[in-house]
Amino acid sequence: MNKHALRIAEVFHFLDNKDITLGYRKFLDCIIDTQHMDLYNEAIAITDWKEQHPQEVEPLIEKCKALLSKAENIPVEETTVTSPILTATNLVKSYGTHKFTLGPVSVTIKKGQVYGLVGENGNGKTTLLRILAKEITHNQGSLQFEFKDKKLSNFDLRTKLIYIPQRTDVWYGSLKDNLKFVLANYGVSPAENETRVLMMIARLGLWNYKHLKWSELSSGYKMRFELARTLLRQPEILLLDEPLANLDVLAQQVILEDLKAICNSVNNPIALILSSQQLYEVEKVSDKVIFLKNGKYKDNTEEEIDTQKLLIVEIDTTTNRTQLLELFKELALKKLTFNGGVFTAEFEPDVPFNKVLKALGESQEQVTYVRNISNSTRRFFVS
Ligand SMILES: Nc1ncnc2c1ncn2[C@@H]1O[C@H](COP(=O)(O)OP(=O)(O)OP(=O)(O)O)[C@@H](O)[C@H]1O
Protein backbone atom coordinates (compact mmCIF):
# COMPACT_ATOMS: atom_id res chain seq x y z
CA MET A 1 0.00 0.00 0.00
CA ASN A 2 1.32 3.47 -0.82
CA LYS A 3 1.08 6.38 1.62
CA HIS A 4 -2.08 7.83 0.02
CA ALA A 5 -3.85 4.45 0.24
CA LEU A 6 -2.71 4.03 3.85
CA ARG A 7 -4.05 7.46 4.79
CA ILE A 8 -7.38 6.69 3.15
CA ALA A 9 -7.60 3.33 4.94
CA GLU A 10 -6.93 5.15 8.24
CA VAL A 11 -9.82 7.56 7.57
CA PHE A 12 -12.19 4.69 6.74
CA HIS A 13 -11.22 3.23 10.11
CA PHE A 14 -12.01 6.51 11.90
CA LEU A 15 -15.36 6.76 10.10
CA ASP A 16 -16.26 3.13 10.87
CA ASN A 17 -15.74 3.97 14.53
CA LYS A 18 -17.88 7.12 14.14
CA ASP A 19 -14.88 9.15 15.27
CA ILE A 20 -15.45 12.21 13.16
CA THR A 21 -13.65 14.82 15.28
CA LEU A 22 -10.20 13.85 14.03
CA GLY A 23 -11.51 11.63 11.23
CA TYR A 24 -13.09 14.52 9.34
CA ARG A 25 -9.88 16.56 9.37
CA LYS A 26 -7.90 13.55 8.15
CA PHE A 27 -10.57 13.01 5.48
CA LEU A 28 -9.94 16.55 4.20
CA ASP A 29 -6.16 15.88 4.17
CA CYS A 30 -6.70 12.90 1.86
CA ILE A 31 -8.81 15.00 -0.49
CA ILE A 32 -6.24 17.83 -0.44
CA ASP A 33 -3.52 15.34 -1.42
CA THR A 34 -5.39 14.55 -4.66
CA GLN A 35 -4.97 18.19 -5.87
CA HIS A 36 -8.20 17.53 -7.79
CA MET A 37 -10.48 20.59 -7.92
CA ASP A 38 -13.69 18.57 -8.52
CA LEU A 39 -13.02 16.55 -5.38
CA TYR A 40 -12.17 19.74 -3.49
CA ASN A 41 -15.57 21.19 -4.49
CA GLU A 42 -17.35 18.07 -3.30
CA ALA A 43 -15.49 18.21 0.04
CA ILE A 44 -16.40 21.89 0.36
CA ALA A 45 -20.09 21.05 -0.21
CA ILE A 46 -19.88 18.31 2.45
CA THR A 47 -18.28 20.77 4.91
CA ASP A 48 -21.08 23.26 4.30
CA TRP A 49 -23.69 20.53 4.82
CA LYS A 50 -21.88 19.32 7.97
CA GLU A 51 -21.94 22.78 9.52
CA GLN A 52 -25.68 23.07 8.84
CA HIS A 53 -26.46 19.57 10.15
CA PRO A 54 -24.17 19.15 13.15
CA GLN A 55 -26.21 16.30 14.66
CA GLU A 56 -26.41 14.11 11.55
CA VAL A 57 -23.39 11.87 11.92
CA GLU A 58 -24.48 8.82 9.86
CA PRO A 59 -25.27 10.71 6.63
CA LEU A 60 -22.03 12.66 7.02
CA ILE A 61 -20.04 9.43 7.29
CA GLU A 62 -21.75 8.08 4.14
CA LYS A 63 -20.94 11.26 2.21
CA CYS A 64 -17.30 11.14 3.33
CA LYS A 65 -16.94 7.46 2.43
CA ALA A 66 -18.39 8.04 -1.05
CA LEU A 67 -15.90 10.81 -1.74
CA LEU A 68 -13.01 8.83 -0.26
CA SER A 69 -13.79 6.01 -2.67
CA LYS A 70 -13.31 8.47 -5.51
CA ALA A 71 -10.10 9.82 -3.97
CA GLU A 72 -8.78 6.27 -3.71
CA ASN A 73 -8.73 6.02 -7.50
CA ILE A 74 -6.79 9.23 -8.03
CA PRO A 75 -3.04 8.63 -8.31
CA VAL A 76 -1.16 10.81 -5.83
CA GLU A 77 2.50 11.33 -6.48
CA GLU A 78 4.51 10.64 -3.35
CA THR A 79 7.37 13.03 -2.54
CA THR A 80 10.32 11.00 -1.35
CA VAL A 81 12.46 12.83 1.13
CA THR A 82 16.06 11.76 1.37
CA SER A 83 18.25 14.73 2.22
CA PRO A 84 17.64 17.50 4.76
CA ILE A 85 16.05 20.70 3.48
CA LEU A 86 17.82 22.73 6.16
CA THR A 87 21.30 22.16 7.51
CA ALA A 88 22.59 24.54 10.16
CA THR A 89 26.10 23.91 11.41
CA ASN A 90 27.58 25.52 14.53
CA LEU A 91 25.51 28.68 14.30
CA VAL A 92 26.53 31.40 16.76
CA LYS A 93 24.77 34.71 17.26
CA SER A 94 25.91 37.33 19.71
CA TYR A 95 23.99 40.53 20.43
CA GLY A 96 27.21 42.25 21.61
CA THR A 97 29.93 41.81 24.21
CA HIS A 98 28.59 40.78 27.62
CA LYS A 99 25.15 40.40 26.09
CA PHE A 100 23.27 37.24 25.11
CA THR A 101 25.02 34.68 22.90
CA LEU A 102 23.21 31.84 21.15
CA GLY A 103 25.04 28.70 20.14
CA PRO A 104 26.85 26.91 18.79
CA VAL A 105 23.68 25.30 17.42
CA SER A 106 23.58 22.57 14.77
CA VAL A 107 20.25 21.41 13.35
CA THR A 108 19.20 19.40 10.31
CA ILE A 109 15.60 18.81 9.34
CA LYS A 110 13.86 17.03 6.47
CA LYS A 111 10.50 17.81 4.92
CA GLY A 112 7.72 16.01 6.79
CA GLN A 113 9.52 16.31 10.14
CA VAL A 114 8.28 18.37 13.09
CA TYR A 115 10.71 19.79 15.66
CA GLY A 116 9.71 21.48 18.90
CA LEU A 117 11.87 24.28 20.29
CA VAL A 118 11.54 24.78 24.04
CA GLY A 119 13.27 26.67 26.83
CA GLU A 120 12.60 29.25 29.48
CA ASN A 121 11.92 32.87 28.54
CA GLY A 122 14.88 34.73 27.06
CA ASN A 123 16.91 31.63 26.20
CA GLY A 124 17.16 32.24 22.45
CA LYS A 125 14.18 30.50 20.82
CA THR A 126 13.05 33.52 18.80
CA THR A 127 16.66 34.36 17.94
CA LEU A 128 17.24 30.87 16.53
CA LEU A 129 14.00 30.87 14.53
CA ARG A 130 14.80 34.28 13.07
CA ILE A 131 18.30 33.14 12.03
CA LEU A 132 16.87 30.03 10.36
CA ALA A 133 14.29 32.24 8.62
CA LYS A 134 17.11 34.51 7.38
CA GLU A 135 15.49 37.45 9.17
CA ILE A 136 18.69 38.16 11.09
CA THR A 137 22.26 37.19 10.35
CA HIS A 138 24.45 34.88 12.43
CA ASN A 139 28.08 35.65 13.38
CA GLN A 140 29.54 32.20 12.87
CA GLY A 141 28.61 28.86 11.34
CA SER A 142 26.80 27.96 8.15
CA LEU A 143 23.18 27.72 7.08
CA GLN A 144 22.21 25.78 3.96
CA PHE A 145 18.89 25.02 2.30
CA GLU A 146 17.96 22.51 -0.34
CA PHE A 147 14.66 23.64 -1.83
CA LYS A 148 12.92 21.81 -4.67
CA ASP A 149 13.79 24.67 -6.98
CA LYS A 150 17.54 25.17 -6.65
CA LYS A 151 17.60 28.76 -7.93
CA LEU A 152 15.14 30.71 -5.84
CA SER A 153 14.77 34.47 -6.15
CA ASN A 154 14.40 36.43 -2.91
CA PHE A 155 10.61 36.61 -3.44
CA ASP A 156 10.41 32.82 -3.97
CA LEU A 157 12.57 32.26 -0.91
CA ARG A 158 10.00 34.16 1.19
CA THR A 159 7.35 31.79 -0.20
CA LYS A 160 9.23 28.59 0.53
CA LEU A 161 10.77 29.61 3.87
CA ILE A 162 8.08 31.16 6.04
CA TYR A 163 8.40 32.50 9.56
CA ILE A 164 5.31 33.45 11.56
CA PRO A 165 6.22 35.65 14.53
CA GLN A 166 4.44 35.70 17.88
CA ARG A 167 2.62 38.91 17.08
CA THR A 168 1.19 39.22 13.60
CA ASP A 169 -0.03 42.30 11.74
CA VAL A 170 -3.58 43.61 11.57
CA TRP A 171 -5.39 43.02 8.26
CA TYR A 172 -8.53 44.59 6.78
CA GLY A 173 -11.55 43.08 5.04
CA SER A 174 -12.90 39.56 5.51
CA LEU A 175 -10.86 36.48 6.32
CA LYS A 176 -11.87 34.82 3.04
CA ASP A 177 -11.03 37.86 0.89
CA ASN A 178 -7.61 38.09 2.50
CA LEU A 179 -6.92 34.46 1.66
CA LYS A 180 -8.11 34.94 -1.92
CA PHE A 181 -5.75 37.88 -2.23
CA VAL A 182 -2.80 35.55 -1.53
CA LEU A 183 -3.57 33.25 -4.44
CA ALA A 184 -4.51 36.14 -6.73
CA ASN A 185 -0.90 37.33 -6.28
CA TYR A 186 0.26 34.01 -7.70
CA GLY A 187 -1.97 34.36 -10.75
CA VAL A 188 -4.33 31.52 -9.79
CA SER A 189 -7.56 31.65 -11.84
CA PRO A 190 -10.66 33.01 -10.00
CA ALA A 191 -12.49 29.65 -9.96
CA GLU A 192 -9.49 27.70 -8.67
CA ASN A 193 -8.72 30.48 -6.20
CA GLU A 194 -12.24 30.22 -4.70
CA THR A 195 -11.97 26.42 -4.47
CA ARG A 196 -8.48 26.31 -2.95
CA VAL A 197 -9.33 29.02 -0.41
CA LEU A 198 -12.59 27.38 0.69
CA MET A 199 -10.78 24.05 1.02
CA MET A 200 -8.13 25.64 3.23
CA ILE A 201 -10.86 27.38 5.27
CA ALA A 202 -12.59 24.01 5.74
CA ARG A 203 -9.35 22.24 6.70
CA LEU A 204 -8.32 24.80 9.30
CA GLY A 205 -11.73 24.84 10.99
CA LEU A 206 -12.49 28.39 9.84
CA TRP A 207 -15.74 27.63 8.00
CA ASN A 208 -17.99 29.64 10.31
CA TYR A 209 -15.51 32.50 10.54
CA LYS A 210 -14.80 33.09 6.86
CA HIS A 211 -16.77 36.34 6.63
CA LEU A 212 -15.35 37.82 9.83
CA LYS A 213 -12.86 40.67 10.11
CA TRP A 214 -9.57 40.69 12.02
CA SER A 215 -11.10 42.50 15.00
CA GLU A 216 -13.89 39.90 15.24
CA LEU A 217 -11.58 36.89 15.57
CA SER A 218 -10.14 35.49 18.81
CA SER A 219 -6.35 35.16 18.95
CA GLY A 220 -6.61 31.41 18.36
CA TYR A 221 -8.51 31.96 15.12
CA LYS A 222 -6.13 34.73 14.10
CA MET A 223 -3.35 32.13 14.35
CA ARG A 224 -5.40 29.69 12.27
CA PHE A 225 -5.90 32.42 9.68
CA GLU A 226 -2.12 33.04 9.57
CA LEU A 227 -1.54 29.35 9.03
CA ALA A 228 -4.14 29.20 6.26
CA ARG A 229 -2.54 32.20 4.57
CA THR A 230 0.90 30.61 4.87
CA LEU A 231 -0.12 27.13 3.70
CA LEU A 232 -1.76 28.51 0.56
CA ARG A 233 1.73 29.61 -0.47
CA GLN A 234 2.88 25.96 -0.27
CA PRO A 235 5.97 26.53 1.87
CA GLU A 236 8.72 23.95 2.20
CA ILE A 237 9.92 25.13 5.62
CA LEU A 238 7.65 26.63 8.24
CA LEU A 239 9.01 28.32 11.38
CA LEU A 240 6.39 29.19 13.98
CA ASP A 241 7.11 31.29 17.06
CA GLU A 242 4.77 30.31 19.89
CA PRO A 243 1.75 29.28 17.81
CA LEU A 244 0.11 27.85 20.94
CA ALA A 245 0.21 31.06 22.95
CA ASN A 246 -3.34 32.23 23.78
CA LEU A 247 -4.89 28.86 22.92
CA ASP A 248 -6.83 26.77 25.43
CA VAL A 249 -5.53 23.26 26.18
CA LEU A 250 -7.89 21.50 23.77
CA ALA A 251 -7.22 23.98 20.97
CA GLN A 252 -3.47 23.46 21.49
CA GLN A 253 -3.79 19.72 20.92
CA VAL A 254 -6.02 20.21 17.89
CA ILE A 255 -3.70 22.68 16.18
CA LEU A 256 -0.64 20.52 16.87
CA GLU A 257 -2.36 17.46 15.38
CA ASP A 258 -3.41 19.57 12.40
CA LEU A 259 0.11 20.88 11.89
CA LYS A 260 1.60 17.41 12.13
CA ALA A 261 -0.90 16.00 9.59
CA ILE A 262 -0.48 18.92 7.17
CA CYS A 263 3.33 18.76 7.33
CA ASN A 264 3.13 15.02 6.63
CA SER A 265 1.29 15.56 3.34
CA VAL A 266 1.94 12.85 0.74
CA ASN A 267 2.90 15.15 -2.11
CA ASN A 268 3.69 18.43 -0.38
CA PRO A 269 5.50 17.69 2.90
CA ILE A 270 6.75 20.60 5.00
CA ALA A 271 9.59 20.83 7.54
CA LEU A 272 8.21 22.50 10.67
CA ILE A 273 10.01 23.99 13.65
CA LEU A 274 7.81 25.52 16.32
CA SER A 275 8.71 27.15 19.59
CA SER A 276 6.47 26.71 22.58
CA GLN A 277 6.19 26.68 26.35
CA GLN A 278 3.78 23.71 26.14
CA LEU A 279 6.44 21.05 26.51
CA TYR A 280 4.34 17.89 26.88
CA GLU A 281 1.91 18.79 24.11
CA VAL A 282 4.79 19.62 21.74
CA GLU A 283 6.69 16.46 22.68
CA LYS A 284 3.73 14.33 21.63
CA VAL A 285 3.85 15.46 17.99
CA SER A 286 7.55 16.23 17.54
CA ASP A 287 10.19 14.05 15.93
CA LYS A 288 12.76 15.92 18.02
CA VAL A 289 12.59 18.49 20.82
CA ILE A 290 15.36 21.07 20.98
CA PHE A 291 15.99 22.61 24.37
CA LEU A 292 17.79 25.94 24.72
CA LYS A 293 19.24 27.07 28.02
CA ASN A 294 21.24 30.30 28.11
CA GLY A 295 21.66 29.95 24.36
CA LYS A 296 23.14 26.44 24.64
CA TYR A 297 21.65 23.53 22.69
CA LYS A 298 20.44 20.12 23.91
CA ASP A 299 17.92 17.76 22.37
CA ASN A 300 15.90 14.80 23.57
CA THR A 301 17.50 12.35 21.12
CA GLU A 302 21.03 12.87 22.46
CA GLU A 303 22.48 10.04 24.46
CA GLU A 304 23.67 11.01 27.91
CA ILE A 305 27.23 9.77 27.77
CA ASP A 306 28.63 11.22 30.94
CA THR A 307 25.82 10.23 33.28
CA GLN A 308 23.81 7.04 33.67
CA LYS A 309 20.15 7.56 32.91
CA LEU A 310 18.29 8.18 36.14
CA LEU A 311 14.61 7.53 36.68
CA ILE A 312 13.13 11.02 37.06
CA VAL A 313 9.53 11.35 38.20
CA GLU A 314 7.36 14.41 38.58
CA ILE A 315 4.68 14.16 41.27
CA ASP A 316 1.83 16.50 42.12
CA THR A 317 0.54 15.48 45.53
CA THR A 318 -0.72 16.79 48.84
CA THR A 319 1.88 14.54 50.53
CA ASN A 320 4.70 16.46 52.21
CA ARG A 321 8.44 15.89 51.80
CA THR A 322 8.83 13.82 54.99
CA GLN A 323 6.02 11.49 53.98
CA LEU A 324 7.43 11.09 50.47
CA LEU A 325 10.89 10.29 51.83
CA GLU A 326 9.27 7.62 54.00
CA LEU A 327 7.28 6.19 51.05
CA PHE A 328 10.39 5.94 48.89
CA LYS A 329 12.78 4.73 51.58
CA GLU A 330 13.18 1.29 49.93
CA LEU A 331 13.66 2.75 46.46
CA ALA A 332 17.18 4.18 46.12
CA LEU A 333 15.97 7.78 45.97
CA LYS A 334 18.87 10.08 45.06
CA LYS A 335 17.26 13.49 45.23
CA LEU A 336 13.87 15.04 46.01
CA THR A 337 13.15 18.65 45.05
CA PHE A 338 10.01 20.75 45.34
CA ASN A 339 9.48 23.73 43.03
CA GLY A 340 6.41 25.01 44.87
CA GLY A 341 3.98 23.19 42.57
CA VAL A 342 5.30 19.69 42.04
CA PHE A 343 7.96 17.36 43.46
CA THR A 344 10.73 15.98 41.26
CA ALA A 345 12.16 12.69 42.50
CA GLU A 346 15.36 11.24 41.05
CA PHE A 347 16.04 7.54 41.53
CA GLU A 348 18.96 5.28 40.63
CA PRO A 349 18.69 4.02 37.02
CA ASP A 350 17.67 0.48 37.97
CA VAL A 351 14.55 1.57 39.92
CA PRO A 352 11.43 0.52 37.94
CA PHE A 353 8.77 3.23 37.47
CA ASN A 354 5.97 0.87 38.53
CA LYS A 355 7.61 0.53 41.98
CA VAL A 356 7.29 4.30 42.38
CA LEU A 357 3.63 4.11 41.33
CA LYS A 358 3.06 1.27 43.80
CA ALA A 359 4.62 3.23 46.66
CA LEU A 360 2.46 6.26 45.86
CA GLY A 361 -0.64 4.09 45.48
CA GLU A 362 -0.13 2.78 49.00
CA SER A 363 -0.09 6.28 50.49
CA GLN A 364 -3.32 7.71 51.90
CA GLU A 365 -2.63 11.15 50.42
CA GLN A 366 -4.12 12.54 47.24
CA VAL A 367 -1.97 12.26 44.11
CA THR A 368 -3.09 14.50 41.22
CA TYR A 369 -0.59 13.25 38.69
CA VAL A 370 2.63 11.29 38.32
CA ARG A 371 4.76 11.47 35.17
CA ASN A 372 7.91 9.65 34.22
CA ILE A 373 10.03 12.43 32.69
CA SER A 374 13.26 10.41 32.32
CA ASN A 375 13.02 10.64 28.51
CA SER A 376 11.28 14.00 28.34
CA THR A 377 12.98 17.30 27.62
CA ARG A 378 11.31 18.32 30.89
CA ARG A 379 14.28 16.76 32.71
CA PHE A 380 16.51 19.51 31.27
CA PHE A 381 14.32 22.16 32.93
CA VAL A 382 14.59 20.55 36.35
CA SER A 383 18.29 19.70 36.28
N1 LIG B 1 17.73 42.74 18.96
C1 LIG B 1 18.28 42.40 20.11
N2 LIG B 1 19.31 43.09 20.64
C2 LIG B 1 19.88 42.72 21.81
N3 LIG B 1 19.49 41.66 22.55
C3 LIG B 1 18.47 40.94 22.08
C4 LIG B 1 17.80 41.25 20.85
N4 LIG B 1 16.83 40.34 20.64
C5 LIG B 1 16.87 39.48 21.70
N5 LIG B 1 17.85 39.83 22.55
C6 LIG B 1 18.22 39.14 23.80
O1 LIG B 1 18.54 37.80 23.46
C7 LIG B 1 18.07 36.92 24.48
C8 LIG B 1 17.23 35.83 23.86
O2 LIG B 1 16.01 36.40 23.38
P1 LIG B 1 14.95 35.56 22.55
O3 LIG B 1 13.81 36.48 22.22
O4 LIG B 1 15.63 34.87 21.44
O5 LIG B 1 14.50 34.46 23.63
P2 LIG B 1 13.21 33.52 23.69
O6 LIG B 1 13.71 32.21 24.19
O7 LIG B 1 12.49 33.55 22.40
O8 LIG B 1 12.35 34.23 24.81
P3 LIG B 1 10.73 34.24 25.08
O9 LIG B 1 10.35 32.85 25.47
O10 LIG B 1 10.60 35.20 26.20
O11 LIG B 1 10.08 34.70 23.80
C9 LIG B 1 17.34 37.77 25.51
O12 LIG B 1 18.22 38.01 26.58
C10 LIG B 1 17.04 39.04 24.75
O13 LIG B 1 17.03 40.14 25.64
From TrEMBL:
Question: Has the keyword Transport been applied to this entry?
Answer: yes
InterPro entries reported for this sequence: AAA+_ATPase, ABC_transporter-like_ATP-bd, ABC_transporter_ATP-binding, P-loop_NTPase
Q: Which residues form the ABC transporter domain?
A: 86-319
* Gene3D superfamilies in the record: P-loop containing nucleotide triphosphate hydrolases
Alphabetically sorted, this entry's keywords are: ATP-binding, Nodulation, Nucleotide-binding, Transport
**Which SMART domains does its entry note?**
AAA
- One Pfam annotation reads ABC_tran
* SUPFAM superfamilies xrefs: P-loop containing nucleoside triphosphate hydrolases
**Matching PROSITE patterns:** ABC_TRANSPORTER_2
What family is reported? Belongs to the ABC transporter superfamily.
Please give the PANTHER family that the UniProt record associates with this protein.
ABC TRANSPORTER ATP-BINDING PROTEIN, ABC TRANSPORTER ATP-BINDING PROTEIN NATA
Full protein name: ABC transporter domain-containing protein
Q: Which organism is it from?
A: Neptunitalea lumnitzerae
Q: What is the lineage of its organism?
A: Bacteria, Pseudomonadati, Bacteroidota, Flavobacteriia, Flavobacteriales
